[in-house]
Amino acid sequence: MTSTNSQKLPLPPGHFGLPVIGETISFLRDEYFTDKRYKEYGSVFKTSIFTSPTVIMIGSEANRFLFTNDNKYFSNKWPASTRTLLGSASLAVQRDSIHTKRRKILSQAFQPRALAEYASTMEDILQNYFQKWEAMGTLTWYPEIRKYTFDVACKLLVGTDVEDNSNFVEIFEEWVGGLFSLPLNFPWTTFGKALRSRKLLLAEIEEIVLQRQQQPASSKDALGMLLQATDDDGNQLDIEEIKDQILTLLFAGHETLTSAIASMCLLLAQHPGVLEKVREEQQELGHSQPLTSDNLKKMTYLNQVIKEVLRIIPPVGGGFREVIQDCEFNGYLIPKGWSVLYNVPKTHQDKNIYSSPSEFDPERFAPERLEDKSKSFSHIPFGGGMRECIGKEFAKLEMKIFAALLVRDYEWKLLPNQDLSIIPAPTPYPKDKLKVEFNKLGSRE
Q1: Torsion from C-alpha of 212, 216, 222, 228, nearest 10 degrees
Q2: Residue 47 CA to its chain's centroid (Å)
Q3: Distance separating alpha carbons of residues 318 and 138, to the nearest angstrom
Q4: Which of 27, 167, 255, 408 has its CA 20 to 30 A from that of 206?
């Protein structure tokens, strides 16, 4: 895997599709896009998406090659629509030393001490939603979970309550809808609407920031920490950067978490034996015990369940890199200037790593098996390397609290005659958005 004599190497198999747009439309609309090409070409193939020639690389070895060669052969790169809508100051699009410095600052909001303070707020918000869902009886759960995760993200990342501004949610959803789209800036396009929504969101966030700057310093949420943070030279972040970072955190703390929690609820309902084991673990720990950090650490089986949920239906399909130097992988040239996309779902289905990979089996992560440990970078729901998701512990904490409190006191039943097949983009969700009957545990007896 070297750049030596790289020009003599063949390009990966595959085709580019139409001029300019390439295979972007198929990539966005065809849920079997990668499967079809994987079967035809293998684990490394070329395409053209988002106006860039792209190599799609699949498997733990490909992930290891990518993640261990960041800043050598590869640099961070997102599609133009994503870069524009997240903003140039967003941690997600920053590179090299700037990325390292900003990541160090933002990571303060996700340290164990901060997470421990977040738990009670998550629990309070969740209990209100449980009561609401119980009163509804039957509901379409996925949109409700979206509301819950957005409430949590707004409270813990920005320090604001969503109910004070319902319009904020609608604008946010329109912005999210354009993150992975063709960057055609017209008023009627998905991207054009998202760009307009970004301006409205930044105006709202700026107003919140200006209000917070007039208040006493607080570290109860990510915004409070950012307002106090300084870089290595002792400089504070300016308001334009804070706005981009907060918008990025809201996306990361809402969109992917909604997908992960909905998938967890679906899979537990479909596997009553696993659900019963999760319940038994909670009963052994004692329902009266608070959800402290120590208490949460004892939920070992629930940990396995969460890992398996994230393996079976990973909330993120992959990640982009830009090739900054010609290199070779598996005998193919990966040319400078191209994009590379690693794939999470196919990595998680590798039969050489996971036994019966299509089965939902949390026991594969039990101490005596630990199937993901046979090869590095074989379980990558949060990416890997120096750009691994900064909020992964926040995500796991929220999933764990949601599951623990849910199974302690409630039961849910999937309603018949609904399509539960998974729509993969922009983050996976059940096609009919998870219709359920929701009750207090034992109330149907």
Answers
A1: 100
A2: 24
A3: 34
A4: 255
Q: Is the pLDDT of residue 92 over 90?
A: no
Cis bond leading into 426, ω under 30°? Answer: yes
Q: What is the CATH superfamily name and number for domain 6-440?
A: Cytochrome P450 (1.10.630.10)
Counting Cα atoms < 13 Å in the Cβ hemisphere of 261 gives 30
Contacts 24+ apart (CB under 8 A), 231-235: 231/101, 231/102, 231/105, 232/101
Distance between CA 282 and CA 101 in Å, rounded? Answer: 40
Asked if residues 60 and 71 have their Cβ atoms less than 8 Å apart, the reply is: no
Neighbours of 341 (CB within 10 A): 23
Q: Per-domain residue ranges for the chain? A: 6-440
- Report yes or no: 414 and 269 within 8 Å, Cβ to Cβ: yes
Q: Classify residue 47 as exposed, middle or buried by CB count within 10 Å of its CB (0-12, 13-18, 19+).
A: buried
Residue 369 near residue 363, CB atoms below 8 Å: yes
